Amino acid sequence: MDHGGDTERRPLSALRGLALACHLPPSLAVTAVATVLALDVGRGRSSIWVALAVLAGQLSVGWSNDALDASRDERAQRASKPIVAGLVSRRVVGLSAFGALLAAVPLSLASGWRAAVVHLVALSLAWSYNLGLKATWASVVPYGIAFALLPAFVTLGLPGSPWPKAVVMVVAGLLGVGAHFLNTIADAADDELTGVRGLPQRLGPRASLRAGVGIMALAALGIGALVVADAGADHHGLLTAVLVAAALGVDLVVLRAASRGRERVAWYGALGSAGLCVLAFVTVGSSALLAVS
Asked: What is the pLDDT of residues 153-201, one digit of tens each?
């Protein structure tokens, strides 16, 4: 019997499994945000190092998440997970996670040692979430701090190693925490089966929706404050203000839909609000981002 076709399919299956296991959409989204911020603050060609470092870090976080959760996913029979589906082995995913983490070190150092330290601290926090904090009341902590450090990784690679404004880091942290609350809603049933009991799961889907939207609204207001404080200094100001206003408007729609029991409308609206907040954040001009211009 000829097994040549099966042999050819196995590597393709493993590659597909790795692509699914790395949580590609959020990995690319975080990478894109970091890259746009790098270009906006004037990192120029070195923005490619930001993109590669952040992508490697995000891949390591995504792969470690699936590798560490493999036993739970198997018990819950989560066939949507590539390891459970047999597309790729847990060992391959785990080794890929460590490989990506190791690659993130020199890629981060390309932005200077200060930026590298900040990025590696953020990655350590993300790994701590995967290693157990995700099932505790403190599940929001890695999200808040790691996302707050992202703009610092970008700006510390500039000449003089300037830090971003404190409000910029607070806004980035709020976006991370808000995303954490909203991200758990769709997985509430699976989390119940696998025993993941982070803060959003303990509060429940409805409370998490309201918390996530409220936190995103605070982030939007923080972005608006940046625009007002830097009025007239940057050509992005009007666009940012429009996006902030749109995000706050969508937040009101989400809260109204949730109060009427229209959970699906509220969920999609919350995702839209989060997207608008992120877009507003990346359009904030460099003069509004940097503590030292």
From this structure: 999 999 999 999 999 999 999 999 998 998 888 777 777 777 788 999 9
Comparing C-alpha atoms, which of 124, 108, 125 is closest to residue 116?
A: 108
Range in 157-161, 182-186, 230-234, 255-259 with the lowest mean pLDDT: 230-234
Separation between Cα atoms, residue 7 and residue 71, nearest integer Å: 27
Q: Alpha-carbon torsion 46, 51, 54, 55, what sign? A: negative
pLDDT at residue 222 above 70?
yes
3-class secondary structure, 290: strand
All residues at 6 or more sequence positions from 69 whose CB lies less than 8 Å from its CB, including other chains:
81, 130, 194
Taking the C-alpha atoms of residue 175 and residue 147, their distance in angstroms, rounded to an integer, is: 7
Nearest to 93 by CA among 12, 17, 9: 17
Give the orientation angle of helix 140-155 with respect to helix 166-185, to 10 degrees: 140
CA 15 to chain centre: 23
> What is the pTM for the complete model shown?
0.88
Per-residue pLDDT at 67: 95
List of domains in the chain: 164-293 (1.20.120.1780)
For range 141-160, the mean pLDDT: 96
